[in-house]
Amino acid sequence: MKYYNLDTVFQFPWEQLAVAFWKRYPNPHSGHVLTEDIIHREVVGNRLFSKRLLTKTEACPKWAEAFMRRVHQVCILEESIIDLDTHTITTYTRNIGLQKYMTLEEKCVYSPSKESSQSSVCERQAWITSKVFGFASAIEQYSYKRFKKHSANAVKGFVYVLKKLYTPEALVSDHNLLSTEKFKETARKAKELAKSKAEMATTQGNRPIVKYCVVAAVSIFCGYHGVCLLQAAVY
Amino acid sequence: MDSVGKECNELKHAYENCFNEWFSEGFLKGKKDDPCSELFKTYQECTKKAIKEKNLNLWESQRDVLGTSSEKTAPTSKS
């Protein structure tokens, strides 16, 4: 079993998180989510109980195709409780297909941050278990890596939706920042390419000297070890 | 976002509009009477049918884990 836990801070108050929670799909980071349905909803006292069913695309690793049929879709069930008394959103998410190969269970508790009423914290825990004889450890390792990647994307997607709803101006500046960063990255790559070409030209010019040095070093090394080996053979 | 059954999309979006409005303006402000329950009922009937047609595991999706003893707990030491 692989266990994962991570706390994430959201720069948004709890109420905004709760509203955005129901509007988080689709977003630019949720391309693998195909469908979303609420299959249960109930208010009990000050708590809202819901079940959300998601279907997602799921790639199967090449090495696992021998014992897994190639599945392109998997169902995910997310149970949630939104509690007005404790100001928490608790979610418990699990796969409800492919369980004989692997189960992934994730629990998240979103609550107001202790430092600021304008931000919230998500405590995320996940358990990945496989019981496939001989492959359990490899499947768990593979799923763990994928989960970490998906989990980071889920946070990015949620933040995108929050910004879109509450700070659209930040989304515009994010976009500009992204464009500037892309421009800087292109400029940096061009500079590196020019630098490496210049270096290559210099190295090529010095090639005979380099070759001589390498030959000399190898000769000294072989000579020294040759003597040692000879000595070892004699003794 | 689309529903699992394409034929349920319209019902889903009608319910979602009602729910999102009530959730932010009603539930979060302490008004707990859900005005969208009728819309939810028709939407749910459609979804249930689609889930059955697609052979998705309805029983497993109805089982509760959150708040029950089936919930996983943090290990004493990381594995």
From TrEMBL, chain A:
Signal peptide range in chain numbering: none
Biological source species: Sinanodonta woodiana (Chinese pond mussel)
Pfam families: PRELI
Official protein name in the record: PRELI/MSF1 domain-containing protein
Domain PRELI/MSF1: 1-170
Automatic annotation (TrEMBL), chain B:
Xref: InterPro entries: MDM35_apoptosis
Entry superkingdom: Eukaryota
Catalytically driven reaction(s): a 1,2-diacyl-sn-glycero-3-phosphate(in) = a 1,2-diacyl-sn-glycero-3-phosphate(out)
The keyword Disulfide bond is assigned to this record: yes
Presence of the UniProt keyword Disulfide bond in the record: yes
Keywords on record: Disulfide bond
Database matches in PANTHER family: TP53-REGULATED INHIBITOR OF APOPTOSIS 1
Family: Belongs to the TRIAP1/MDM35 family.
Protein name as annotated: Uncharacterized protein
Organism: Sinanodonta woodiana (Chinese pond mussel)
Taxonomic placement: Eukaryota, Metazoa, Spiralia, Lophotrochozoa, Mollusca
